[in-house]
Design goal:
The chain is α+β, with helices and mostly antiparallel strands. The protein has helices spanning about 30-45, 65-80, 130-140, 150-160, 165-170, 185-195, 210-215, 220-225, 245-250; strands spanning about 10-20, 50-60, 85-95, 100-110, 125, 175-180, 200, 235-240, 255-265, 265-270, 275. It has 2 domains: about 10-110, 60s Ribosomal Protein L30, Chain: A, CATH 3.30.1330; about 125-275, PurM-like C-terminal domain (Phosphoribosyl-aminoimidazole Synthetase, Chain A, domain 2, Alpha-Beta Complex). Helix content is about 35%, strand content about 25%. Mean pLDDT is about 90; it is low at about 1-5 and about 285-293.
Length: about 290
C-alpha cells in the first residue's frame, strides 16, 4: 500500500480483546487495564516489525463509573503517548467488562516480519525474561506480601513493555518473529508450524530471574518461563552470521538470549542438563477449563 507520503509501505492491523476474570483479575487498578489493553496490540505490531500509528477502542462497562474510566484512560493514553499512537474512534456499551483495541501501523513493503520464515540452523532467540509476568499474576492472586521481588513481578504483569523498537531492528536481521502471549512453548510451536520446521529448546539457557529465584523453586520458575504467557516479549530466529550485528545494535538494558536452534522436521524438543526434558505445562489455551486468572 502506498501511503500519503509516497513511501512504499504496508498497512498492518492488530486487534485484541481482554476480558475481566479471563485476561486480568477483577482486583487490579483501572489504569493497568487500560495500559495492558494497548500493550497486547503493540506487541503484535512489534512482532511484525511495524511502527504503530492509530487505534480504535471498544469498551463494555457494567456501569458508568467516572473514576474508573479516568483511571483506565490514564493507563491507555500513558502507553499511547510513549509510542505516538492516536485514539481516533470507538464505541462504549453497557455489559461485562470487556476491552477491545484495534491498532493500525505501517511497515516497509519488503521488510515485514512473519512467523513463517525460520530455517533449520537459525538461532532461536528471546527478549527479556519470560515467565516473570505469569509469576507476577500469581503474586497478585495469592496476595503475597509486598517485597522488592514481589513488586518487580507484579509490575511485569501490570505494565508489560512491548518490544516495538526491537521489532523495528529485527526487520532486516530476523527470519521469523512472534510475540509471547500464550506462553513461550505454545507460541514457539506456532512459529515452528508456520515455518514448517522444528526447534531444539535449551531449558538451561532460559534467562534467569532473580525475583523468581527468590520466590519459587527451579521447577516452578521453568513452568512460568515455558507456559506462563503475558510477557509480551519476542521470540525470533536469525542466521548465526547475523547475531554479531544484532548484538552490536542492541539496547544494553534489554536482555537478548539464545535459547536454542531451529531444526528440520517439526515440533519442539526440549533439553535440560543435556537430556530430553518433558515440560509439565505447555501454555495458555483460551478454551481450556480452569485457565482464567
Amino acid at each position: 500500500m502506498l501511503d500519503v507520503r509516497g513511501e512504499d509501505r504496508r498497512l498492518v492491523v492488530a486487534i485484541d480483546t481482554i476480558v475481566e476474570g479471563v485476561h486480568f483479575p477483577r482486583s487490579i487498578d483501572a489504569s493497568a487495564i487500560g495500559y495492558r489493553a494497548l500493550a497486547v496490540n503493540l506487541s503484535d505490531i512489534a512482532a511484525m516489525g511495524a511502527e504503530p500509528a492509530w487505534m480504535t477502542l471498544s469498551l463494555s462497562l457494567p456501569e458508568a463509573d467516572e473514576a474508573w474510566i479516568a483511571g483506565f484512560a490514564s493507563g491507555l493514553l500513558e502507553l499511547a503517548e510513549q509510542h505516538d499512537v492516536a485514539l481516533v474512534g470507538g464505541d462504549t456499551v453497557r455489559g461485562p467488562l470487556v476491552v477491545t483495541v484495534q491498532l493500525a501501523g505501517w511497515v516497509e513493503a519488503d521488510k515485514w516480519l512473519t512467523r513463517s520464515g525460520a530455517q533449520p540452523g537459525d538461532l532461536l532467540m528471546v527478549s527479556g525474561i519470560p515467565g516473570e509476568a505469569a509469576a507476577g499474576l500469581h503474586v497478585i492472586q495469592q496476595h503475597m506480601p509486598l517485597t522488592e521481588a514481589t513488586a518487580q513481578l507484579q509490575w511485569r504483569f501490570l505494565r508489560p513493555r512491548p518490544r516495538v523498537a526491537l521489532g523495528r531492528q529485527l526487520r532486516t536481521l530476523a527470519t521469523a518473529a512472534m510475540d509471547v502471549s500464550d506462553g513461550l512453548l505454545t507460541d514457539l510451536q506456532k512459529l515452528c508450524a508456520a515455518s514448517r520446521c522444528g526447534a531444539r529448546l535449551d531449558i538451561d539457557a532460559l534467562p534467569p530471574s532473580a525475583a523468581m529465584r527468590e520466590l519459587f523453586d527451579a521447577d516452578a520458575a521453568i513452568d512460568y518461563a515455558l507456559a506462563g504467557g503475558d510477557d509480551y516479549e519476542l521470540i525470533f530466529t536469525l542466521p548465526p552470521d547475523r547475531l554479531p550485528e544484532l548484538l552490536a545494535q542492541r539496547d544494553p538494558a534489554l536482555p537478548l538470549t539464545r535459547i536454542g536452534v531451529m531444526t528440520a522436521g517439526g515440533g519442539v524438543q526440549c533439553e535440560r542438563h543435556g537430556a530430553p526434558f518433558t515440560p509439565r505445562r505447555t501454555g495458555y489455551d483460551h478454551f481450556a477449563l480452569g485457565e482464567s486468572p
